[in-house]
Amino acid sequence: MTPIEKCLINKSTNINPIWLMRQAGRYLPEFREIRKSNQDFIKLCLNQTLAEEITLQPIKRFGFDAAIIFSDILMVPYGIGQTVQFKKNFGPSLGNLELDKLGNITKNDFTENLSSIYKLLSNLKNSKDLENKDLIGFIGAPWTLLVYMINRVSPKNGLSQDFFKDEVLINEILNLLDKFLKIHIQNQINAGATIIQIFDSWAGLIQKDFDKFLYNPTLSLVNYVKSLGVPVICFPRGISDYVKFTKIVKPSMINIDYNVDPKNLIKYLDIPVQGGLDPKILLSNKENLKKQIIKYLEIFKDHPYVFNLGHGILPETQVEMVYELVEIVRNYK
Ligand code: 1CP
Fold first, then answer.
1. How many domains, in total, are found in the chain?
2. Structural domain of residue 304, as residue ranges?
């Protein structure tokens, strides 16, 4: 059993496995080196050899307890047939939604479009570097993908008033996503993913119809992952009621964001917890880092807890601070 499985299945406490969201990425000089000569991000995600190397980069440096495959949540809109580009200093930019075209994609087309992701997983499955470690596959939650598909750029400046105007379109996309996210989950598990994480990075933008946009679509996918016998971690970033979320959706583990008060949460939660530390703390100093890490480890001393961040690691993070973080977590008794 891997350390994370011990937390998830045996509900072991005090072992503090660790991995970091966005651990394979821009804060690593060896990633930036590869990226320099690979300007097309989608192509890079589909380049099996390089994706494998990037996935293992943080494992080789820090010995994390899990590798998360180098891919992106927007590979699903891409796989369905919406164009996706990543522009320098701008972020993702998606093409027009042609529902006729998207609606005609078959399971086989989709699987073919993303086949290199599944090959990546099956290659990594037996990697020497991942002995006794988990291999995490992932998806974006339906709400977060809906946001990108309709908004077509990052919603970091909020959603426009007319985002909700075409209800038929919204319903069709949600149906499409439920179908293809399940296929993507099944393909990743068949290829070797030992855990699935669902990233709902923009869940905090939901202000109405929580059943329709948050609970129902996530529950459908969580139940599906469970039916395949694999643990599922949810990260509904920015929602106000994590307790209600876990009661309704019942993931195997909940990844909290840095605005959650862990002390209060733990009184009401009976499932394993992951994450919480504000990634900005890694930009401060070692003393402060230690203090904040110990705070989380103390609070979760008697609760199954996987150390992680409250959102992805920031590109400007110094590698030295990550070594420090790992050492503090590993040496905590
Ligand atoms: O070099 C570059 O500019 C590319 C940066 C980059 C990387 C390294 C992007 C573009 N995606 C990724 C990889 C990635 N994305 C991974 C695998 C690596 C790892 O986690 O170690 C994962 C799990 C994701 C997931 C992802 N993509 C999320 C959910 C997690 C989160 O951080 O909230 C989201 C929202 C995306 C969309 C996306 N992809 C890339 C960017 C810059 C963004 C965010 C855009 C925005 O601000 O809206």
1. 1
2. 3-331
